[in-house]
Automatic annotation (TrEMBL):
GO-annotated cellular components: plasma membrane
Annotated membrane topology: Multi-pass membrane protein
Localization per Swiss-Prot or TrEMBL: Cell membrane
Organism superkingdom: Bacteria
Keywords: Cell inner membrane, Cell membrane, Membrane, Transmembrane, Transmembrane helix, Transport
Main location: membrane
Keyword DNA repair: no
UniProt KW Transmembrane helix keyword: yes
MF terms in GO: transmembrane transporter activity
TM region(s), chain numbering: 27-45, 57-76, 82-99, 111-132, 138-159, 180-207, 238-261, 292-310
Protein name: ABC transporter permease
Origin species: Paracoccus liaowanqingii
Amino acid sequence: MSEIASAPRRPPQGTQMLLVALKARTFIALILVFAFFAFAAPNFLSTANMVIMSKHVALNAFLAIGMTFVIISGGIDLSVGSIVGLCGMVAGYLILNGIDVGLGWTMHFNTVEICLIVMAVGVAIGAVNGVLITRLNVAPFIATLGTLYICRGAAMLFSDGRTFPNLTGSADYGSDTFRLIGAGTWAGLPVTIWMLIAVAVLAAYIAGRTPLGRYIYAVGGNERGAALSGVKVDRIKLFVYMFSGLCAALVGLIISSQLVAAHPATGQSFELNAIAAAVLGGTSMSGGRGRIGGTIVGAFVIGVLSDGLVMMGVSSFWQTVIKGLVIIAAVVVDQAQQKLQARVALQAEAGA
């Protein structure tokens, strides 16, 4: 007489709905925050404010995309804000001064060359972070904290703490188009948004469609298991920090272009917003889990929250407190989701 296996027991409908709500928490939070400020903040829905807010969101989203890869791999990058400031100063220095190569000759660069040099600086700093972590076995928190101070100090040294003003560039050297990076538009959208779309699509493709993406998740989920499976763990970690440095360099270029000036203090606390956006978007601080799409939505939540609080006249001190509470709440909700999913899985196995 053959035994008939019973179908897996489905969790109660209330549990299912709660699990769906927890998975969609970032979208729900975005809708609630947007609706609240639409009524509470004057002119929040105006076209001008939407354009400004989209640019602010884009800056945070760039950093959050790079941070997502780092966190998924099991690390953290506290240096991105300082890389933003340093890369902005590098761009300003190149535009205003060029590079003195000796013999009374100065090398000047056009906009494309300046962007490539600045991005190379960001990637190089990310590589330093990766080498410290993989080769010297420095904890990611300590390595990137040290890089944070080094980059901030280097940014100050570029100009003795002063601002590089009037970065309008020169038509003779082809750098007069630099301002279009942050202020230009194409097909009705700011160039910054097009850049974000390109980076987001690239990151989503890497994460979801390539072996590299699978390796990043594998390293964050079980580093030893990934290494035993043949994954080059050190190379994966090096890549994610270099990619994070690249994203930070792009933000440095955009901000210096928007302001037509570069200041060494630019980017302070940007890393907190990036971490908040990634965590709010569902990226697990323990590694191995996260999605680029969720991070983008998380960046929108942080951006809407920040701009809305400013329009309501809320103190910047309270804004910092609220962002901290958002990070804590996001982690707590993520842990609740994981526990609920584990319980549902056990119930399903028990009922099988």
